[in-house]
């Protein structure tokens, strides 16, 4: 259970590549997800993008926050914060922040990217140490990857079965993340009927996930490309996250049939 919000965060954060297409987002965008573990309302996750300055230039500053509520909070107490500062044109990250508390398991670190030398300086404030890690070219952090992929140049032209592969730096190492496009589907939400694109990331089965294709994410099939629904089958139980609120979208939110 203590991994619920990390699972959601990783999901929300893994959909895209650099591109020439028009940005799918702009500063001021914010959305919120309601997370269920089985039939229990386990918590919420939010993600927003602002504008900031790094290396004397304006950059995007994305902030993700996941937290437990009710009985889940009483027994497990999840409070996770993920941040990323990344370039407005290349989507390359300058810095990430990861500060989490998951049922007593805590982590407090920042990573500083040197994209010219393909290195990341990781500062571990909890254990009071730091290290430099060699990374691949064009590597993303967990949060920047989400925005990087939303602008994938041919995302609208993917065919079922085709995959996108991304190098992501997480937990001190490079993760080769593979995201498979499944197809399109209209789904019912609190906002009405929404046309979506379905993606399924390949994950490690066993400790957390039931199978390699245990995770499924529905993305709005419009110019915004925002997550609408996430489902995951775990080794114990299942989780579901639905879009619960939003504001500041760059493009109109496409709804086929609005709920009364």
Tell me what the structure shows.
The chain is mainly β and 260 residues long. It is 9% helix and 53% strand. It is built from 3 helices and 16 strands. The protein has helices spanning 4-12, 70-75, 142-150, and strands at residues 30-37, 40-54, 57-68, 78-87, 93-102, 105-114, 119-124, 129-134, 140-141, 163-170, 173-189, 192-201, 215-220, 227-233, 238-247, 257-258. It has a 16-stranded mixed sheet that branches. A hairpin with a 2-residue loop joins strand 2 and strand 3. The radius of gyration is 18 Å and the shape is globular. The model is unreliable at 1-20 and 204-212 (pLDDT under 50).
First and last CA, distance: 35 Å
Rg, Å, rounded: 18 Å
> What is the strand content?
over 45%
Largest sheet: 16 strands, mixed
**What is the tally of beta strands?**
16
Query: What is the ordering of alpha helices and beta strands?
Result: HEEEHEEEEEEHEEEEEEE
Helix amount, in percent? Answer: under 10%
Structural class estimated from helices and strands: mainly beta
Given the C-alpha coordinates, what overall shape results? Answer: globular
Q: Which oligomerization state do the chains in this entry correspond to? A: single chain
Average pLDDT confidence is 84
Q: How many helical elements? A: 3
Unreliable segments (pLDDT under 50, ≥5 consecutive)? 1-20, 204-212
